[in-house]
Predict the structure.
Amino acid sequence: MTTLLRIDASLRLDGSVSRALADSAEAAWKSEHPNGVVVRRDLGLHPIPAGVWPALITAKFGAEAPAGADFADPAEAKALATDVIAEFKAADAVLIAVPLYNYGIAQNVKAYIDLLLTDQDLLAGTAVAGRPVIFTLARGGGYAPGTPKEGWDHATPYLNRIFGEVFGMNVRTAAAELTLAPVTPGMEELIDLSKVSEQDAHTTAGEHASEVARTLSSTAA
């Protein structure tokens, strides 16, 4: 049975564009692959504690946490990392919904990725090479070539570098821009463009997920 791992990172439930795009992708995936299983990890509601990664790295090099350090318990940190990594490796496809916060990825996403990067097989690019990963991204402003903020999106290149180049996965992206236009003074003239961008992103997310589901189904047949 095929497994889709869905990871949400938005701090919001209501009104989250990245979650809504992931909903479209998940619905399309289920439509094509109704017998598949969806495993969920919500980093927005249940983030990885900040002290986990320092505890893992300190223990890895045989050192003890410095006096007064707010590190996690090493055994608990290792158990959590083991679960996170095993879950990721077991998935046939991964769907990651990420909002652009402060021009990059938020701490909850970085903490998750840092745990994955403690695994040698993932670092070597052998554990999940060739597997599909779909990013549903929400950007409050505009970052396309020629815009004033071109190059300010530091999240997408990082995600592509880690999941595409380090892990060797097959990356697909559906991104909505100008998502803050409807609620931000001074962006009123961009509201129509934001609606078009969001609708296009929903369409793209569904197309990516359908393609992934069909590919997995044909491979399993």
About this structure: The radius of gyration is 18 Å. Residues 3-220 form a domain with the Rossmann fold fold (CATH 3.40.50.360). The mean pLDDT is 94.
